[in-house]
Structures are given as structure tokens and as C-alpha cells.
Amino acid sequence: MLLEVNGMKSSYGRIEALHGIDVQVGEGELVALVGANGAGKTTFLRALSGVQPLTNGEIRFDGADITKSKPQARVKQGISQVPEGRQVFGPLSVEDNLRLGAYRRRGADTDADLERVFETFPILKRKRKESAGTLSGGQQQMLAMGRALMSNPRLLLLDEPSMGLAPLLVGEIFNIVQMLREQGTTILLVEQNAFQALAIADRGYVIETGRIVLTDTGENLINDEKVKAAYLGL
Ligand code: ATP
């Protein structure tokens, strides 16, 4: 397994938000973690990227224990997160935003990576000289994903990429996530939009109030009666 999370617990003060999470992601897999508002998805991702401490459990990446590694060290090892709300640098151009994503890789072939990102997101190429702040919500999401890809990640963490987007754009973003997986990127997709996330995922986990309550293939979860009732509105 590329990523192994074992018994992860995490708290805000005296309030425990994660009660022992076990999640695995294999090389090349697209894994979805789905759950409602407040289930603990963001806390889980923050703990993975190292900005939220664990009170128990461990995180292993490529076999190494990174539970206590600093966020920058994890990025260097290849864990790259696209944060919720995207957080692109509005005044900077699209191209400069993308180049910032490669800043840890001095000496790397940034131009080749940039071209690859432009192939995946042609709209970003057309708008490369425009300031990021002028992009639509969907385009900013693409920019944030492109920026993360510029670090050549071994694991891409996506925090609710469909949030706040119109339905048509949501479909487009999920298509892109699926395409990235087909290109070989390992992805952990965290989503409230359970149906579309599970539809493209190899495997999925359902999180409820800080616990994993179900795990199976994406397909089996979509057809699971409990999942249908609770998350798919069916
Ligand atoms: P959302 O979809 O709204 O982001 P989520 O699934 O990401 O929800 P979390 O934000 O991880 O859920 O929250 C998990 C639990 O931890 C919730 O009960 C929430 O109220 C609590 N929590 C989150 N952030 C804090 C904080 N800074 N201080 C105290 N409690 C918090």
C-alpha cells in the first residue's frame, strides 16, 4: 500500500473528532472517502497533510512512518493536497500559480510539467496570462488541481473538488479526476457528493461522526441499501 492509516484519532481540545480511522490507498488507485457535513473528512485530510496532530494511531507512506513528519516533509515525499475552497493566488497569472506548485522541485523540468498540465486542462493554457482571480469557480478548481500536479505528487489529496460548482461543472471535474487516475496518478478523493465520487472510485470508505462505517468497491457502495438511503437520496 502507498498510504496506510491505522487507528487514526484526532481531537480539537477535549473533543475527539476522529475515533480510530483505518484507510488504505494502493499505488494507482482512486479511493473515495465520502460522508456528510461534519463527519470528519476535513479533519482527516488535515491530519494526513500534517497540519492537525494525531492523538493516536499512525500514518505510513510508502512503508515509512510519517506520523510525526512536518507538512513540508510530506509534500517533499510526494503528498500533495488540493485544499477545499481552492485558494489560488488571485492577483497572480494562471501560469505563475502553476509554476508556484513546482517551487519545491528546483532544477526540475518545470516547463515539461507545465505543458503536461496544459494538455490536461486546455482552458488553463488559453488563460495562462490572465490573473487567477478572474477565473470561474470551476476553472479555479482546475487551476488548484493543476498546481498540485506541478509538484509531481505520488499521492493527490482532493478535498471536496465539487463544492460550490454548478452541476455541469461538477461532472467535468469528476471526469478530470477520472482521467488523472487513468494517467496513473494515485488519488484520495474526499467528497460530500457521494454518488459521483463513488461512481469513479475503485474503492470507497463511508465516514460517519469520525468513524469508518462501511468500505467496499465504489460500485458495491453505490448499490448498498444503507448508502443509498443515507447518501444518495434514493
Ligand atoms: P465539512 O464537509 O463541513 O467540511 P467534515 O466532514 O470535513 O465537514 P470536519 O470539519 O472534519 O468535518 O469536522 C469534524 C468534527 O470536528 C465536527 O464535529 C466539527 O464540529 C469538529 N470540528 C471541526 N473543526 C473544529 C475546530 N476547529 N474546533 C472544534 N471542533 C471542530
UniProtKB/TrEMBL annotation:
Q: Which PANTHER family match?
A: HIGH-AFFINITY BRANCHED-CHAIN AMINO ACID TRANSPORT ATP-BINDING PROTEIN LIVF
Cite a single GO MF annotation. ATP hydrolysis activity
Q: Which GO terms describe its biological process?
A: L-amino acid transport
Family from the record: Belongs to the ABC transporter superfamily.
Superkingdom, natural source? Bacteria
The molecule here is called Branched-chain amino acid transport ATP-binding protein LivF
- What organism is this sequence from? Caenispirillum salinarum AK4
Identify the keywords attached in UniProt to this record, alphabetized.
Amino-acid transport, ATP-binding, Nucleotide-binding, Transport
The protein's matches in Gene3D superfamilies, at most eight in alphabetical order, are given as:
P-loop containing nucleotide triphosphate hydrolases
Residue ranges annotated for the ABC transporter domain, each copy included: 3-234
